[in-house]
Amino acid sequence: MSEGYFDDQSMIRRVHREHIIALSGPRALLMQAAQPVAFAGFFMSSGALEDPYARLSRTASVLHAITFGDRSGADRATARVRAVHRRVRGVLSQPVGRFPAGTPWAADDAELLLWIIATLVDSALLVYQRYVGGLTRDERQAYWDDYRVVGRLFGLRRSDMPATIEDFEAYMDEMLSGDVLHVSPRARELAIDIVLHPPVPRQARPLLELANFITVGLLPDGLRRQYGLGWDPVRGLALRVGAEYTKRLVVPVLPRRLRYGTARAAA
């Protein structure tokens, strides 16, 4: 296999080899759907709502190809995605938040692509630091630098993305405190039907309930309220205690075959 964009020393591999990072996926998906134009462009227009799990599987395969595969495979996978994005255009059919009906959107719009990527980064860093271990400023910068490579493969220019991890965090703060994000009734349905109630075997229901608890708890407060998901200080304390227990006493002693894998295995 030819050389990849990343190697085993890359922060993106160090983070995403941890199976527990799969917990970041539902949070990222809910954050993506809270951007009304991104929701129209990446969910409503792509068949994701009719067959959401197939779409998530395809997304996981592309990210796996970039993170763990060789350059030729990553280039082929992302070229297909960019070709699809170039064809996907539309307008909002009804007003959502600050966006009036008729607002145009395009799946390859740089602002929308940045938000999609940013939710993946923000969610993965949060889960890693809560459940695996702390990261230094330079490690977080290296992780963001790796994702800037991912962004380039999806068609973003360097100037479209924050340069430093501090710039990235400022961007996230601005998005979460501003008026761009607005959970529409349809996005709220997504939260309930797709993210929190996926089809799983009966024996896996307890694990799903635990994952849902973590997803709800890790959402930014404002978005959690917009989604209508209940939370309280007792549950907040339980989440923090559980995370510390996992980080200190569970993850360090897990056998490698249970702790580590690849992005595809985790997905």
If you had to describe this structure to a student in words, what would you say it looks like?
The protein has one domain (11-266). By secondary structure, it is mainly α. Strands 1-2 form a two-stranded antiparallel ribbon. The relative contact order is 0.17. Helices cover 63% and strands 2% of the residues. It has helices at 11-16, 24-33, 36-44, 52-68, 71-87, 110-131, 137-153, 165-177, 185-195, 205-218, 221-226, 233-250, 256-259, 263-266; strands spanning 89-91, 104-106.
Unreliably modeled segments? 263-267
The major pleated sheet works out as:
2 strands, antiparallel
Quantity of strands, as a count: 2
* Count of discrete structural domains: 1
**Distance linking N and C termini:** 23 Å
Q: Strand content of the residues, in percent?
A: under 5%
Rounded to the nearest angstrom, the radius of gyration is 18 Å
Q: Biggest sheet, strands in spatial order?
A: 1-2
* Individual helix count: 14
Helix fraction? 55-70%
Morphology call: globular
Structural class: mainly alpha
Average residue-wise pLDDT: 90
Strand/helix succession: HHHHHEEHHHHHHHHH
Task: Summarize the structure in short.
With about 270 residues, the chain is mostly helical.
Identify the notable features of this structure and list them briefly.
single chain; 267 residues; mainly alpha; two-stranded antiparallel ribbon; 14 helices; globular; disordered C terminus
Layout of helices and strands:
Blueprint: H1 11-16, H2 24-33, H3 36-44, H4 52-68, H5 71-87, E1 89-91, E2 104-106, H6 110-131, H7 137-153, H8 165-177, H9 185-195, H10 205-218, H11 221-226, H12 233-250, H13 256-259, H14 263-266
Helix pairs in contact: 2-6, 2-9, 4-5, 6-7
